[in-house]
Amino acid sequence: MSSNSFAYNEQSGGGEATELGQEATSTISPSGAFGLFSSDMKKNEDLKQMLESNKDSAKLDAMKRIVGMIAKGKNASELFPAVVKNVASKNIEIKKLVYVYLVRYAEEQQDLALLSISTFQRALKDPNQLIRASALRVLSSIRVPIIVPIMMLAIKEASADLSPYVRKNAAHAIQKLYSLDPEQKEMLIEIIEKLLKDKSTLVAGSVVMAFEEVCPDRIDLIHKNYRKLCNLLVDVEEWGQVVIIHMLTRYARTQFVSPWRQGDVLEDNEKDFYDSDEEQKEKADKRKRPYAMDPDHRLLIRNTKPLLQSRNAAVVMAVAQLYWHIAPKSEAGIISKSLVRLLRSNREVQYIVLQNIATMSIQRKGMFEPYLKSFYVRSTDATMIKILKLEILTNLANEANISTLLREFQTYVKSQDKQFAAATIQTIGRCATSITEVSDTCLNGLVCLLSNRDEIVVAESVVVIKKLLQMQPMQHGEIIKHMAKLLDSITTKLLTQYILNLGKYDQNYDIRDRTRFIRQLIVPNEKSGALSKYAKKIFLAQKPAPLLESPFKDRDHFQLGTLSHTLNTKATGYLELSNWPEVAPDPSVRNVEVIELAKEWTPAGKAKKENPDKKFYSESEEEEDSSESSSDSESESGSESGEDEEDDRSGDSAEDSGESGSEPEAGKGRAATRSRARGRGDSKDVDKEKENSKTSESSSGESSSIEESSSDSESESESESESESRKVTKEKEKKTKQERNPLTKDVSLLDLDDFNLVSTPVALPTPALSPSLIADLEGLNLSATSSVISVSTPVFVPGKTHVLLHRMSGKGLAAHYFFPRQPCIFGDKMVSVQITLNNTTDQKIENIHVGGKKLPMGMQMHVFNPIESLEPAGSITVSMGIDFCDSTQTASFQLCTKDDCFSVNIQPPVGELLLPVAMSEKDFKKEQGMLSGMNETSTTIIAAPQNFASSVILQKIVNVANVGVVPSGQDNIHRFAAKTVHSGSLMLVTVELKEGSTAQLIINTEKTVIGSVLLRELKPVLSQG
């Protein structure tokens, strides 16, 4: 509404039209003395009324117009009291615009802003990240020393915020607080150190800027974050890239040896007069020693190279200066093409880039010689651009291209731009001094210019010729005679008097002073002192010849691309580049310790001590076979888990146990342990599973030897079985760590593809049975059953986390949880949940544990062991197991510390209540046929054809639900299978593609409630693009 002011004039009879008419007249009326920046009282009164209105629409309209006024440069400061009243508005859009206004005027209206400081503090805890960030910006814009403690506390909290945008604004606020109160430096450095560890690309640039402002000398803070910054550089926003590159350039100059040293040493072959033979030998060894670039040095150069193609000129310039200052000279040439590309930008960019190229071209001409024509002057160039291009052309001049350049210069001399023409004549003089072959040609050309009609060209030519003659007076006698002849027609005395009179009345006081001084020397009078007697000695004394050199010669000691380099003087805040160290500092300071994932599972190891009565094996056997019990018994916290493992082991030891005449017991155990769904099948599948188990056992002899020792324990010694089991345990643990599989060592002895969790409750075997008899029973348990269900590894594990406890609610303790989709080590009916606890305070949090539980009927929970303490900014991941009873009911409990208890909830998505199942297409169809009718739900899906690609469907399905993929012989049918964690009921998902852009989604399961919920979740996912 405020964007187009003319729209109001077109409206008839409205208050807004009248208001705009007043605005228009105010800018041209005598009372509006300040033009656009004058304030119309009536208009502002109208805006105040709108801001005090009860309607959010009116307030929003007023704020839009006020922000529009600020954007146009108009003064809206007198509206501050009316605007600040709306800072507590519940409308999020109004609140955003109010904060935009407050950031602009908080520094000017400090007293009024202080009145609302409590509102800003409350806004720091707002659920909306934009409001939290805006409140911090306003708070840091109030430049009053009295609120420094409040700002410090706000920055500390914001630096630990979950939103990277808020943490970014915390880094910005650090600089403001430091400029307001430098005594807070040490506390701010602690926050900077914490933010430097942040992995968000949004924060990186801002925190490095804060580092450069507050503590640029604390290089030690960068060591651990150096490699991370190098790797994040490509993804950081553009202005952050500029800051990081400049900082890393300074860092590299202090931590790595010079890549130019080798070339410099090899070129220095002259023997110093006073050097002894031993010293010469040391130097020779130094020259022979090959240079090896530090890998971190190479990492920086390699990761900045792609940024030469950035669309931002400042980024390209930053990378160019980095290559110039720290890269080997042989590699620095790649920046020339990128810099020449920037010459197509606007004149401001051209000016800075040409200044840097002028400095580079003095030392390394070869870099820019291929692009000589890019520096030819265009008629549309600004004067300063033309002069800089002339400077570069002069630096690039050599014997090969001087003839071409002189022809260019002849054209430039005729330019209508007199300043440019004069600069061209100076350029010709410099070429004459640097290239002796064309000295005479240049001098003759300059002499010809003395007859030019343009007085500026003649004057400049005389000055340049004078300098050239002073440099070589004996070789150019003819030119001196020629210039002397020009004085024949000029009366020297009258000319001198005329020049002195002009100088006497010149506007420049310096020229007037010089004129008075010279007049007393060369035109003595009665008042002249003794100084006039020595005029000849003063003016005709021997002087050194003038030097014609580049004005950019001495700028190379400033870092390229900086303000100091542009101004050729040290600017405030400039950080000098240090010299390369003779010996590189210790590179190990940049090494970062990697925390092992297995460390997260350490609390699980303590569970077996808490529940000694729920173990499957007897204590005597556990002592004998310690290695096996450490991996297997920990996973059996419930009675059902022991039976499941027994059933699973029976598949591996079926052949080794042989015929033992215990078929009735085996049949009885099978009937008790198999669910109705798993009871279906034929003997062919049993044969296939036996063949598979043979293959797996033959491929790993160690595994089979364990099973043999368990079945023939009477004939083989227990010590051999124990040593073998330890070997296999270690190998399996290594394998799972390498694959970064979240499965722990508790199931490391099992083949994960055959890991079978059966959930039907049965009576536990009595402890009176010997281990060998148990093994025999297990071996016979699978002799006549099918392999319809075999739990497989998850196809995909989504990394989505859920907030369990917000740091604000938890008084600094934050908790997040996610579902790793792995078998739960605490019970086969439980869903594995990983909880990450973070301490966002600056104090240690002690005794973190789970307190009271409020669980629905039948739901069970296995909690993590108490955590003694969590250090400031520390983090730890623990595991829990929850039996949700195949429902999406919420598990409520208390997360407690030493001092407080917080009520938290975990609600599982329906897709996390499943375990993936591997089965054949034939078994799938057979099970699907038995789960028809009331056990089947279906719906039609409409989507674009590209959304029905096999890979797209697979990705969408496994992202929502933890299901396994079933092989399909038809391209238009996709099948997925899973089973519920608690009851083991099958969940069969079918996606059948129809003609056109439709498909049918079918779910077959006994758990119709879960099936319908899963159907509702899958339908929108498959329908959307």
UniProtKB/TrEMBL annotation:
It is found in: Cytoplasmic vesicle, Clathrin-coated vesicle membrane; Golgi apparatus. Residues 607-618, 679-694, 723-741 have a biased composition (Basic and acidic residues). Belongs to the adaptor complexes large subunit family. Residues 659-670, 695-708 have a biased composition (Low complexity). Keywords: Cytoplasmic vesicle, Golgi apparatus, Membrane, Phosphoprotein, Protein transport, Transport. This is AP-3 complex subunit beta. Residues 1-26, 604-741 are annotated as: Disordered. InterPro entries: AP3_beta, AP3B1/2_C, AP3B1_Ser, AP3B_C, AP_beta, ARM-like, ARM-type_fold, B-adaptin_app_sub_C. Residues 619-658, 709-722 have a biased composition (Acidic residues). The lineage of its organism: Eukaryota, Metazoa, Chordata, Craniata, Vertebrata. GO terms for biological process: intracellular protein transport; vesicle-mediated transport. It comes from Bos indicus x Bos taurus. Residues 1-11 have a biased composition (Polar residues). Its main location: membrane. The gene is AP3B1. Residues 742-889 form the AP-3 complex subunit beta C-terminal domain.
